[in-house]
Amino acid sequence: GPEAFDKGLKSYIQRWAYKHPTPMDFFRTMNDAAGKNLDWFWKEWFLETPTLDQAIDSVSVTKQGQDAHVMVIYGNKGNGVMPLRVRFTFGDSSTQDFTYPVDVWKSGTTYTVSYTFAGKTPAKIVVDPGGHFVDVKRANNVWQAK
């Protein structure tokens, strides 16, 4: 987020002012400031030219009394990875957001998640609801209940 980026940029300026840093110096400083290894991000988005296409491959909804059991298979159709951000919108217009780390794509191009919602049934599911990622095909980011 913006706070982590600002912290990293300030650290970078302090470490490398009046010196000759390389891009790797910037990447390492940002990793240190974030407290996590972001090499996957630097590699894919600065050193390569990936495409990102996260998708909702399939959704199954099973009602059990008032509860809705939902199984969603998310897909990664491109060769780039980003964290998976998802928003469920329910019949009463309430929403619930979920964020999954980029690691969900390490084991393959699909990621399956089961959810149980007490007293609510999803009316819509959207991947990257804020539109922050450079997804090449947003049409497959939305599932709408029939």
General description of the model:
By secondary structure, this protein is an alpha+beta fold. Helices cover 25% and strands 35% of the residues. The protein contains 3 helices and 7 strands, in the order αααβββββββ. The protein has helices spanning 2-16, 23-34, 39-47; strands at 54-64, 67-76, 84-90, 95-100, 110-117, 122-127, 142-144. The two termini are 35 Å apart.
List the main descriptive attributes of the protein structure presented here.
alpha+beta, four-stranded antiparallel beta sheet, three-stranded antiparallel beta sheet, single chain, 146 residues
Short summary of the structure?
The protein is built from three helices and seven strands. It is α+β, with helices and mostly antiparallel strands and 146 residues long.
SSE topology sketch:
Elements: H1 2-16, H2 23-34, H3 39-47, E1 54-64, E2 67-76, E3 84-90, E4 95-100, E5 110-117, E6 122-127, E7 142-144
Antiparallel strand pairs: 1-2, 2-5, 3-4, 3-6, 6-7
Helix pairs in contact: 1-2
Overall pLDDT:
94
Distance between the termini: 35 Å
Using only C-alpha atoms, the radius of gyration works out to 19 Å
Largest sheet: 4 strands, antiparallel
- Please trace the helix and strand order, writing H or E for each element: HHHEEEEEEE
Strand arrangement across the biggest beta sheet: 4-3-6-7
Residues in helices, as a percent range: 10-25%
Shape: elongated
Report the strand count: 7
